[in-house]
Amino acid sequence: MAKTPTLRIDRLLASMGYGSRTEMARLAKAGGITLDGAEMADVSQRIALTPDLPARMQVDGAVLDPLPGVVILLHKPLGMTCSHKEDGPLVYDLLPPRWRRRDPAISTVGRLDKQTTGLLLMTDDGALLHRLISPKRHIRKTYRATLARPLTGAEGAIFASGTLMLEGEAKPLLPAELQVIGPCEARLHITEGRYHQVRRMFAAVGNHVEALHRESMGGLRLDDGMTPGAWRVLGAEEVGRV
Description:
Alpha-Beta Plaits; 15 strands; alpha+beta; four-stranded antiparallel β-sheet; elongated; Structural Genomics Hypothetical 15.5 Kd Protein In mrcA-pckA Intergenic Region, Chain A
């Protein structure tokens, strides 16, 4: 059985963006940090990072944020960028401001371009992030595309062939599954994550994607009624579906 990790209270809270270790010591002395209802005046104490800790600990009158290793499911809105550095609205702006100061930082699991909406995962778990974006995983992702021109009927066979080459690349795409929804609308299932892949696939067959929405990733889908910009923290069982 793996040993439960422990960490000093001040180091834990500083890494979660609550403030400096000095600020955490000051807050604790003022009675602002409690565990199971008891004040924790000494933030040099080590504490076990158990899954139930956020429910047991309060900081400045509020329950503790999710511990390091958090995984977030977010409905990415149109016009937001999956970046820490670019100008304009960022997906990180949708999270509580304190979460921008977490260390390790929360990052997106892959990216959706600015004009693509839908399911986006975010995490501060570097090992999990690299495992999920590894090209060896072949995680199935489903996109709904609205197209500028009607489908010809040949696209499904071309995408499924495993021979389609994208412009500027030397390796063909893995087979992908196309489901026709309407004359100018289709659902595409892919198992790779190449740069702007879905848009480039339709461009390769003479069409243009006007709107693109990711519906699912692995066994995860957006919750019913989850509006653009909404997000929630995933449980361990849900993370295991990816």
